[in-house]
Amino acid sequence: MMHTTVGWHVEMEFREDDQHTQAVALVRLPDGSEVRAHGHASRHRTDVNQPRVGEEIAGARALNELAMRLLTKAHDEIDQASGRTSHPIHV
User: Fold this and answer.
1) 24-33 pLDDT per residue, tens
2) Integer Cα distance of 27 and 83 in angstroms
3) pTM value?
4) Is the dihedral of CA 34, 69, 60, 40 positive or negative?
């Protein structure tokens, strides 16, 4: 039975203009390390300007990259602890 509770808080920041949205995702881990990732979205010139949609797309892309960076970090830590090369971690 598990009793330890750990929480992660992911921070998202957005920068936008009329055509582009950039997102940055950041998570601070309990070991003190930080993992940061970026995402972007571009609005086609004929599309209606909907900033929320750009944020959702750019945010999702940043979170996807964040997930991949966390998998890579975990994979590297497994290799370091075991002293051998392990099988890749796939989503």
Assistant:
1) 999 999 989 9
2) 27
3) 0.85
4) positive
Question: From residue 9, how far is each of 29, 82, 85 by CA, in Å?
Answer: 9, 29, 30
Map the chain to HEC letters: CCCCCCCCCEEEEEEECCCEEEEEEEEECCCCCEEEEEEEEECCCCCCCCHHHHHHHHHHHHHHHHHHHHHHHHHHHHHHHHCCCCCCCCC
Q: Which two tokens stand for residue 38?
A: 């970026």
Identify whether the C-beta of residue 16 lies closer than 8 Å to the C-beta of residue 54.
Answer: yes
For 45, residues 6+ apart whose C-beta sits below 8 A from its C-beta are 19
Q: In what order do the strands lie in the sheet with 20-28?
A: 10-16, 20-28, 34-42
